[in-house]
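The methods section describes the discrete structure representation at length, but only in general terms. What matters is that the chain and its backbone geometry are given together, residue for residue. For illustration, here is how one protein appears when written out as sequence plus structure tokens:
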Amino acid sequence: WYVAYGSNINKERFMRYINGCSDQTEPVAEKSYHIPYSIYFAGVSKTWDNKGVAFLDVTKPGSAFGKAYMVTKSQFEEIQIKY
């Protein structure tokens, strides 16, 4: 499972990561996921058209909405390396 937050809860947006992988197979499952940390936005990303960037603050309890995608091991590893 790859757990996403921020703009990546939108599947179309998340698929940009998958489409950058060697294996471009869509996730075989997806589900809502509660993340027990605060989320905040800061800066902009040149990669994503100068849009804001979401971060989790794992030092502070809170609540953020997430989405879990079941991807292959190779996709998970490529996403970690590339993004």
Notes: The mean pLDDT is 92.
